[in-house]
Amino acid sequence: MSKDKAALLDVGLFIMTSYVKPWLKYILAVKAPYQDLCLLKLMKAYEKIDKSIAKVTLRKIGRHLWYLTDEVSVLSLFDDDVNQETKVKMVENLTKRIYQLMVNITSHRRKNFAVHCMKNIYSFISVRSNSLFNCLKINDSSLHQCPTMWSNNASFQEARKKV
């Protein structure tokens, strides 16, 4: 097999196994923070298949994730793909001051950003995350309930419509 054909097959494998689903499926803002972290983890695992493609992809995705702050990551509370246990930890972190967050990503830190983002989405939630609720005038009283109850909570459903 020629070198060009092998490279084309490598790119095709990457696109089909790793790129198409996130690109087409996760276009909603509430899905972006969690799904982008999932994509980073997927690319880390993809290193076992093709280290060079994974390395370039991780670097590129890391440059794209400048937005991943505690104020925006809280949108994941409204993502049905985030499990209940994670949502409970996110709500717990709404009262904590977490200073190790990647809030202001400078150019010298961007290349390591993908490594830092291998955390769970709840690691990006802090007391500052509440600013989203304040800014959008969202009643956050439903967050005091178990996440399994949110689907039946009028306050939560109204908040979901806003985001």
Task: Write up what this structure looks like.
56% of the residues lie in helices and 0% in strands. The longest helix is centred in the N-terminal third of the chain and has 23 residues. The protein starts with a helix and ends with a helix. It has one domain.
Please identify the structural class as seen in this structure. Answer: mainly alpha
Order of helices and strands: HHHHHHHH
Rg over CA atoms: 18 Å
C-alpha geometry: elongated
Rounded mean pLDDT score: 81
In DSSP terms (H or I, runs of 4 or more residues), the helix count works out at 8
The number of distinct β-strands equals 0
Low-confidence segments, given as residue ranges, are 100-109
Measured distance between first and last alpha carbons: 50 Å
- Share of helix, binned: 55-70%
Q: How much of the polypeptide forms β-strand, as a percent range?
A: under 5%
